[in-house]
Amino acid sequence: MGNQFFGNIEKKTGVNMAELLKLAASIQNANLKDEATVRNLIKQVGKIANKPVKKEVEDKLVNTIINNSEQVNMNTIAKMLDKNNK
């Protein structure tokens, strides 16, 4: 079931599940108080989602994440990217 489930998600979203799972693992172990790490994670989420991240949006996300890291996860970053890139 797992492979078919992930395959269906990939078809519907265009998001590579292997890349997404790798990113999720890296976020779990990331130092979300380190600006370079946070910028790298934001760029990775944008790349996986196939959404370029504008510099001002990246700066806002970095500031939010660094100052609120206990509340941030991959889903939070993806929502922020979607909201700020419209």
What's the structural blueprint in terms of helices and strands?
Blueprint: H1 2-13, H2 17-28, H3 35-49, H4 55-67, H5 74-84
What does this protein structure show overall?
By secondary structure, this protein is an all-alpha fold. It has one domain (2-84). Helices cover 73% and strands 0% of the residues. It is built from 5 helices and no strands. It has helices spanning 2-13, 17-28, 35-49, 55-67, 74-84. Helix 3 (35-49) crosses helix 4. The relative contact order is 0.14. InterPro entries: SpoVIF.
Number of strands: 0
| Helix/strand/pairing category | mainly alpha
What number of domains?
A: 1
Question: Strand portion, in percent?
Answer: under 5%
Organism: Anaerobacillus alkalidiazotrophicus
InterPro entries: SpoVIF (IPR025942)
Protein name: Sporulation protein
What are its keywords?
mainly alpha; 86 residues; 0% strand; 5 helices
Outline of this structure?
The protein has 86 residues and is mostly helical.
